[in-house]
Design goal:
Function: May have porin activity and function in peptidoglycan binding.
Family: Belongs to the outer membrane OOP (TC 1.B.6) superfamily.
GO cellular component, one term: cell outer membrane
Structural class: alpha+beta
Shape: elongated
Oligomer: single chain
Main location: membrane
Protein name: Outer membrane protein 40
Length: 383
């Protein structure tokens, strides 16, 4: 049992240290790394307890006579939406009804727990969720005192011969989130103690006693963020497509580099002015999304710079959706959202006059590219 205690304590300490070092990962979802000062909280609560031994159970006493009182102060941190750790300092009064031991016993102690949010882990993370069910597992320590909050053996050393024990703690926390920084909790716990903690001279069949606890209280966030932000991962197909374009452009540049620097005189070619001039700027979107990724903002920026340099130019934004996903009606609406998102970026982020911008959307009725994934796109045309 001592080896188990040491192993569990080491795991809890390692978890607390790693909370500041590793990226948050929860059920396959990667979350942006929070600061070391984020996701801390403090809680204050109180409640009752009942001591469980064969002698207590056999005594002729009502359930109410066996209830003691207790209070607790805790400080904890969530390392991810699923996992957290906390330190609890607690104390209270145990009402004994078994024969041969004092009727009351006070105590002080604490425990370190590893917490697991079942709702987030088995469902999906929602920072605005009201209710969470959180089991915990930990180890701790309790020091027994007499009814006057003094050592039970006043002539002994502080620890030697006194009522004290390591504890093994499990329980369930019902958390009700009022706001991002305020929550209410109802906690049910069970802890295992050394049989000698209550001072009973009677030895039973087991080496351990136990105690059930029930507390309720309030928690407050300790500044900083109290939630997690999912990382927006690029579509791997889109990354591969962009890499293919880069490799193609590199190959074309290499061919141009190998051409001779001079060429024979050629007859002058009269320029041909087209009514519509294509601007080689496109904005690719992730599947089922109308949000412009950070890596695609450069296309919007280049178009805005072109329009600022050419005050008479007007742009037409045509958006599409790929044909292999979604229904025609859904894709038509999605392509409209994509066109409007690009237009809004030009207007709101780069100050382009809305009168110079027109939009159109084709859904999946037209596919400008042979590659299906490339058709999640908005294309700029300049008049």
């Amino acid at each position: 049992m001592k080896k188990f205690s040491l192993l569990l304590f080491t795991a809890l300490v390692a978890f607390s240290i790693s909370a500041q070092e590793v990226q948050n990962v929860s059920q396959g979802t990667v979350y942006l790394k929070n600061k070391a000062s984020d996701n801390w909280y403090i809680g204050l609560g109180g409640g009752t307890n009942i001591y469980m031994t064969q002698g207590e159970n056999d005594a002729d006493a009502s359930f109410g006579d066996r209830l003691g009182w207790m209070g607790q102060l805790e400080v904890g941190r969530w390392n991810s939406p699923n996992w957290g750790a906390r330190l609890v300092v607690d104390g209270g009064n145990i009402a004994h009804v078994a024969a041969g031991i004092p009727a009351e016993q006070n105590w002080l102690g604490g425990h370190v727990d590893l917490m697991y949010n079942i709702i987030n882990a088995w469902g999906s993370y929602n920072p605005d969720r009201v209710y969470s069910l959180i089991p915990y597992l930990g180890i701790g320590y309790m020091y027994g005192l007499d009814e006057d909050w003094k050592k039970p053996n006043p002539d002994g050393d502080l620890f030697k011969g006194q009522n004290q024990t390591l504890t093994y703690n499990v329980g369930l926390i019902n958390n009700f989130q009022v706001s991002k920084s305020v929550g209410i909790f109802v906690e049910l716990g069970w802890r295992v103690l050394q049989e000698s903690f209550d001072g009973s001279p009677v030895s039973g069949d087991y080496e351990y006693d136990s105690m059930f606890t029930g507390t309720a209280g309030i928690k407050f966030g300790l500044g900083g963020k109290q939630d997690f932000t999912p990382a927006e991962l690029m579509d791997y197909n889109l990354i591969n497509d962009l890499n293919s374009q880069i490799n193609r452009l590199r190959a074309e540049n290499e061919q141009l580099r190998q051409r001779p620097e001079s060429c024979p005189e050629c007859p002058e070619v009269q320029p041909v002015v087209n009514e519509a001039v294509y601007v080689p700027n496109v904005v690719f979107f992730r599947i089922n999304s109308a949000k412009i990724d950070r890596g695609q903002q450069v296309s919007v920026y280049n178009t805005a710079e072109y329009m600022k340099a050419n005050p008479d130019a007007k742009v037409n934004i045509v958006a599409y959706a790929d044909k292999q996903t979604g229904t025609p009606a859904y894709n038509f609406a999605l392509s409209e959202k994509r066109a409007r998102a690009v237009a809004d970026a030009l207007i709101n982020e780069y100050g382009i006059d809305s009168d110079r911008i027109s939009i159109d959307w084709k859904g999946d009725t037209e596919q400008p590219y042979a590659e299906n994934d490339w058709n999640r796109v908005a294309i700029f045309f300049v008049d």
